[in-house]
Amino acid sequence: MARGHLHKFGGSSLADADCYRRVAHILLTHGNSDDLVVVSAAGKTTNFLYKLLSLRDSGQLWQEELQVLISYQQTLIEQLLSNEQARDLRERLSTDKSQLVSLLSLAQLNDYQLNQVVSFGERWSARLMAALLRETGVAATHVDACSILVADEGAVPNILVQESRDKVQALLALHPQERLVITGFICANRQGDTLLLGRNGSDFSATLIASLADIERVTIWTDVEGVFNADPNKINDAKLLKSMSLAEADRLARLGSPVLHSRTLQPLFNTEVSLAVRSSYASHTDFTLIAPLSSSASAPVVTNLNEVVLFSFKMNTNLAPLLSLLDAAGLTPLAYWELAQHKFELAFTLESQKQVQALLTKHAEQWAIEELTIQTDLGLVALVSADAHHFRRSFARLLSRDAKPIYQDSLSLVTLVPQAQVSLLTQKVHRRCAGPKMRIGVLLLGVGNIGEAWIDLFKRASPTLDRELEATVELIGVVGSQKALITNDGINLNHWQQDFQQHGTQWDYDKLFAQLAQLSCDEIVALDISASATLTLQYPELFARGIHVVSANKLAGSGPLPFYRELKQQLSNRRLFWRYNASCGAGLPIQHALNDLRNSGDRIEAVGGIFSGTLCWLFENYDGSKPFSELVLEARGLGITEPDPRDDLSGRDMQRKLLILAREIGLAVELDDITLNSLVPKALAELSLEEFLPRISELDDDLLQQYAAAAEQDKVLRYVASLDRVEGKLQAEVGLQWVDNHHPYANLTPGDNVFVIRSAFYQGNPLIIRGPGAGREVTAAAVQSDLVHICKDLLQE
Fold it and tell me: Which parts of the sequence belong to the Aspartate/homoserine dehydrogenase NAD-binding domain (predicted)?
């Protein structure tokens, strides 16, 4: 039966006696009696051995430093083992010291002898760990990896897989039900000479031996809990990944992971061996599992390299053959760009610079490589995930003009930036793409027809909106005139009315603000779909609490100028947004147009139009054949007018809308600065509704006379709002006008709004915006548009 587990422990996990005891405890509590164990040299032992060689080469005394190293090993033995086992290891250590003295005393050391000096650290660790396990009463044997891993020599030893597999399998057969503690970092040639596996060689030893032994799981025990979605030493809110695919892990390793190394992962391809990365200091905590056959994408990981080298050159041939040549030499670029005019750019790690430069120089004539330049002042920022393509747009939005265009493959997005920008861009990419999604809570204030229409629209748009924004936008509250429902879990849009009726509670503003303060939302946007003056007075408190507002309610935008200025001042004091396009023209983009004209440098000279769908309907249908009052009552019966038609006929609504537009173009005006010519005589305006309706016919004579007089001049009656600058003076008025039959105010679809803008750019031929200016669906759409704009603004860095 195949063995199930191989554990690998690095030098930091074996730094002192307590560390050794911790490792022994892990092996006894997290493993089986036949587990394999691969160990590195304890603590900084390997560095110490290299230091001895350096002292020797420079002609300095090394004997004292050697004694320090031997004393360190003796102390570990004394602290961990009983007399009998300690005596055996002390004798072996004494022999090793003599051998080291002999090697360091030689006039010349060949490569094999140098390797032998450096390899003592792993041999000491394996012996001591096996002895400590035996001390606890379990069967354990130390194994020198030179006896099982055979390699051809090269810049990096090339493992002879089948020969090594045979030796590993034979070793396992000789030691059933016994823990084998194997040296990492080293192997041997066919003559038995020691070879070093190079940087991160012990991790490579572990995965290599696991693949040769048909082990199911390798666990690399280290000083971190696993792989994080960013470097936790640089990103405070980096999160541990519980799983990722082997392909993702390999791409991450190539792009600069501080935990994973590409060479370590290579033996796992085309096997069923999984790899766990765990902390030996917190063995009870979560860890990262790398599954070789996983097809599901992990959460995105952001990584960086503070220094890379960029090769730029011209080449008249296709890049693919050169990339194949580089791959064969083990010099796969981190990223590359094919530019115009046969120019190419390839990015590599600094460690690869000399090899890449030599290869390009060697093949320069063959590949017609010209104008080769090397740039070393750039760093790399990358995102790794099998779903990397989903994050391309968000990643791209964060790039400055100093950044290289995004390089994208199936697993990653990569850019290069000046080294000074690496840290900041890494934080931004993590926050936008890999960090927790921003949660934006929406508070609906008003549950009438428009509120219901907006919820229907929001329900349809929500999945697409969340995906495009890469955020979560949730309805967290519905507030009516009597009841309110506020929930941190979000309101179910499929049966919100039922929940509102069953779970809504009486409310006041103090209670409402207290509930909102308890919500776990990054931002809150309140939608004022009401006509409440009381709610308008709460806008300063909403802004003071950092709550953004979308207004279909026109009372705030047309309120007293000091109040309006106070609101605008609050917006300028912090990052707050207030949009109110729905308060004038419903879904028509009139405020967008005015702002665009001002931003373009245009000067707006006049704004006019018919801003009331009700008054448009009345005058488009009024032809003198029936009394105007009869038409008003018909419209009231159809629900076109307000319950009290005077609310429409007074023109007050259009006056407020004109004030909103005036302020939008920068005019400091009050409502009373706009002359209001009401259709309702003062005598009728002061009556109750019950008194007014029987006397509504008193409107008819004057309107009929005006209609006839206008018709004689081939004109029609329209109720119009107008704002004009005449010789530097403002003229603003709302009232009945006679207009030509071909005027933009004539021949509208009953119920439409029309806005006519004259500016420095639009003089003889004014800008006209026309369309439905009322209705639950178009008003709800305007509210939704403003909500989306605020969400996008909030997501901007």
Answer: 446-569
Q: For the chain, percent helix, then strand, then coil, each to nearest 5?
A: 45, 25, 35
φ/ψ region of 443 (left if φ > 0, alpha if ψ in -120 to 50, else beta) reads beta
Residue 255 in tokens = 């792009």
* Residues in Cβ contact with 787 at an 8 Å cutoff, skipping those fewer than 6 apart: 442, 473, 525, 527, 550
C-alpha 21: how far from chain center: 42
Residue 384 to residue 582: CA distance in whole angstroms: 42
Work out whether the CA dihedral 506, 512, 514, 516 comes out positive or negative.
positive
Nearest to 273 by CA among 36, 526, 537: 36
pLDDT band at residue 441 using 50, 70 and 90 as cut-offs: very high
pLDDT of the residue at 639: 84
Q: DSSP readout, 449-472?
A: HHHHHHHHHHHHHHHHHHHHHTSE
Q: Among residues 636, 640, 630, 586, which one has the least CA distance to residue 611?
A: 586
Residues 171/148, Cβ–Cβ less than 8 Å? yes
Distance CA 631, CA 622 (A): 7
Residue 453 sits at φ, ψ, to 5 deg, of -65, -40
Question: Would you give the DSSP letter of residue 431?
Answer: I
Read off the pLDDT of each residue in 756-779 and give the average, rounded to a whole number. Answer: 88
Q: How far is CA 43 from the centre of its chain?
A: 38
- Reported as a single tens digit per residue, the pLDDT across 48-65 is 999 999 999 998 999 999
User: What's the longest Cα–Cα distance across the chain?
Assistant: 125
Catalytic residue positions, numbered: 657
| Look-up of token digits 């300690």 | 86
The rounded distance, in Å, linking the Cα atoms of 217 and 219 is: 6
Q: Rounded distance, CA 222 to CA 219, Å?
A: 9
What contacts 27, CB < 8 A, 6 or more positions away?
Answer: 7, 35, 37, 133, 179
DSSP 352: G
Residue recorded with tokens 């090769």: 311
Residue 1 has pLDDT above 60, yes or no: no
Among 786, 456, 777, 778, which residue's Cα sits nearest to residue 586? Answer: 778
